[in-house]
Amino acid sequence: MFKPQLVFFDIDDTLFRKWENFLPESVLPAFQALHEAGVMVAIATGRSPCAIPTKVQAVIEAVGLDVLVSINGQFNRFRGETIASHPIDPADIAEVIRICRAHDWDYGFISEEKMALSSDRQRVHDSLYGTVPYETDPDYWQRHPIYQMNVFITAEEEAELAASGFLQRGYQTIRWHPLAMDLLHADGSKARGIREVCAVLDIPLAQVMAFGDELNDLEMFKTVGFGVAMGDGREELKALAKYVTTPLEEHGVFNALVQLGVIDRKPWGAA
Q1: What are the start-end ranges of the E strands in the chain?
Q2: Fewer beta carbons within 10 Å, N or C terminal of the chain?
Q3: Where in the chain is the domain with CATH 3.30.1240.10?
Q4: What confidence category does residue 9 fall into, taking pLDDT thresholds of 50, 70 and 90?
């Protein structure tokens, strides 16, 4: 039995299925039960605060959220107050824009307030599928701190970006669609955000639990004391997890918390 002080949840395919706009009805009771048990509730996501799905935001507003690690650890809050942030150097943003314009690539900027893109062309639509709100504003970076960029390119075009030498300035790319990827600091990750938050709150990492499903959760699982993988998650993550639960449609989050003794409830659906 593991008794965490703090539990982190990934959003996409852990709490929420974005393509179906589906949030299990057990998520709200799970968060409520954690608070009743004296456990802090947290989210660790690659999304910006401005891109948290409406249904997830409704749960947060209903029960409260203690910690938000967002934009892959680039912008982190404790009960609404920013406690660590890592904006990209404007000189580096200008260089990425120069490279993209030379190749006629679309690009975008992520702040805590919005997602702004260089254009509204078809490749952008094809990669976002309307799941993330954005506006077209190629000069947005000149007026706001930017914590992550998007570059809308194929894997073949990504090789051209690598050949430019830009990534050697201390940056990494994370592909999330055949036509799009994130660009952020090389040490940016959910794990860094979690370490920073726990240092500020004086919570031992060994007393932290995390739920996830994807490859960008690997470092998070290596950092916390107890990792729980979703049943339909990546095999690499499940191999690293200390517990594998069912997919979200089968109330994997709620039932894992019950089975592990974190919350005192009956399994979801039990008589």
Answers
A1: 6-9, 40-44, 67-70, 75-78, 81-85, 106-110, 115-117, 135-136, 148-152, 171-177, 180-185, 208-212, 226-229, 243-244
A2: C
A3: 90-185
A4: very high
d(CA 211, CA 227): 6
Does domain 6-85+188-260 sit in CATH 3.40.50.1000? yes
- The yes-or-no answer on residue 10 being catalytic is yes
What does the DSSP 8-state code read for residue 47?
Answer: S
Banded model confidence at residue 130, pLDDT cuts 50, 70, 90: low
CATH 3.40.50.1000 range(s) for the chain read: 6-85+188-260
Show the tokens assigned to 169.
């300035």
Given 10, 12, 66, 106, the catalytic residue: 10
Residue recorded with tokens 């920073």: 196
User: Whole-model pTM?
Assistant: 0.91
Q: Are 114 and 164 in contact (CB under 8 A)?
A: no
Neighbouring CB atoms inside 10 A of 164's CB total: 14
Q: Strand, coil or helix: what is 125? A: helix
pLDDT value at position 131? 64
Query: Above 60 in pLDDT, residue 192?
Result: yes
Beta-carbon neighbour count of residue 103 at 10 Å? 12
CATH number of 90-185: 3.30.1240.10
Distance CA 98, CA 83 (A): 32
The residue type of 105 is: W
